[in-house]
Amino acid sequence: MSAIGAVFQGEATSLHPMMPLEVLRSRDFTGAYVVTLLLHFANFSKNVLPEYFA
């Protein structure tokens, strides 16, 4: 968790961040980002994990 905090701190203080943190203030963008992240986790668990735990 501290590594994630360090990444956000670095992005917040960078002159040219890879993703400006201001976009996360938009509720629509953040909601779509979270839904996409959950769908990627679901896809991974459906397609990859059965290979290891079958």
Polypeptide structure, described:
With 54 residues, the protein is mostly helical. The protein has a domain at 20-54. Helix content is 70%, strand content 0%. The longest helix is centred in the last third of the chain and has 21 residues, at 27-47. The protein starts with a helix and ends with a helix.
In short:
Helix content is 70%, strand content 0%. The chain is built from three helices and no strands. It has helices spanning 2-13, 27-47, 49-53.
Q: What are the defining features of this structure?
A:
elongated, single chain, 54 residues, mainly alpha
Q: Please state the overall shape, judged from the principal axes of the Cα atoms.
A: elongated
- Kindly report the oligomeric state of this protein: single chain
The helix fraction, in percent, is over 70%
End-to-end distance: 30 Å
Number of helices: 3
The strand count comes to 0
Order of helices and strands: HHH
- What is the typical, i.e. mean, pLDDT? 90
By secondary-structure content and strand pairing, the structural class works out as mainly alpha
Largest sheet properties: none
Indicate the radius of gyration in whole angstroms.
15 Å
Unreliable stretches: none
Strand content: under 5%
Produce the secondary structure layout.
Elements: H1 2-13, H2 27-47, H3 49-53
